[in-house]
Amino acid sequence: KVFGRGGLAKYLSNSTDAGNPPIVGLFHYAKASGTHQLLRMTLTKLEKLNTGTSVWDDTAGTAYTHTNLCRPQSAIIDDTLILTNEGTVQPRKYTGSGASATLGGTPPYCKMLGAYKGFLFAGDISTDGSFSDITDGHRTLRYSDDWDVSWTPCGADASVTGDLILVQTPGKVLRLEQMGRESIAYKEDGGVQLVWTGGQEMFRRDLIPSIVGLGAPLSLGNVFDSIHYYLGKDGLIYRVTQEGATQVSDEVLANTIHSSTVRGLGRYKYARHLIDTEEGLYVLFYDRTGLTVQFLDSYVAINYISGEVTKGRLPSVIAAVAHRPTNDSREVALV
Questions:
Q1: What are residue 156's phi and psi, to 5 degrees?
Q2: Apex 124 CA angle, 36 and 263, nearest 5
Q3: Residue 24, Cα to own-chain centre: how many angstroms?
Q4: What pLDDT, in 10s, does the model give residues 112-147?
Q5: Helix or strand or coil: residue 217?
Q6: Alpha carbon of 168 to those of 200, 248, 279: distances in Å?
Q7: CA distance 74 to 89
Q8: What does the pLDDT look like over 46-98, one tens digit per residue?
Q9: How far, in Å, CA of 146 to CA of 304, rounded?
Q10: Does the first or last residue of the chain, that is N or C, have fewer Cβ atoms within 10 Å of its Cβ?
């Protein structure tokens, strides 16, 4: 089920359990028309909340086949929601009605998605889904500005589609998020700034020395393309601005997160986040007690305006999202 702020009431009084649970992803899809939709991903379905009937409508098309450890990612480009389920299938598009469908032009299987300067980026890629067929595929971003037509890298016309191999560090690329006029590719062992230059080079890539590796892909939160927060591989929370990365959590908080049952990062990778603009909060959800699957039972909340840090426990959850039903409505924090 999906619960609203405080976890006391089911959102819109909807008591329907998800088909083939658990819910592994929640997505806020804001269209240019002002229409806002809430979607959830289960083991086999992509469902849209019908606010008129308070029923979740199946929009998956072909059923998904991922496991309950799937950590899906999404991006919105050209008014279209793009989704990947860590590369179990090729990325799919959803336009707000009907069923989702695989992107055209033989897109790569990918474990991450991002959008920047009108290009859709697929990262940690594979042609056949094995994720062992492309040399350096784990640290490659493949981009296309004609993402529903062509994904074939074209060196002669790199302004349309191409590959960016992030050789600055050897690790996997996990996320891509915009920061001001640039974007940052977060990797498991550092960060690389992408700067759009146009011309033959298209995108300049520069190592950001101050960024610690990303410990949980879905812990990364973007506040108005000006502040990023994330859980580092060292178990600390970091704040990133155009001036660089700084440690937010202190030693006491680090010890709180570094519970002996999850110290080895085996559970950190499932951490999720929520940006609550109503309260000015970045909220990190994590497993402190060694639960199963992707369940998370604790949180750290950081006020990105005042810097105040709070922490606590909560009922076991997996996914979280901030959803605004309309342009003019208040934001609702959902888990």
A1: -75, -20
A2: 90
A3: 12
A4: 999 999 999 999 999 999 999 999 999 999 999 999
A5: helix
A6: 20, 25, 37
A7: 14
A8: 999 998 888 899 998 999 999 999 999 999 999 999 999 999 999 999 999 99
A9: 36
A10: N
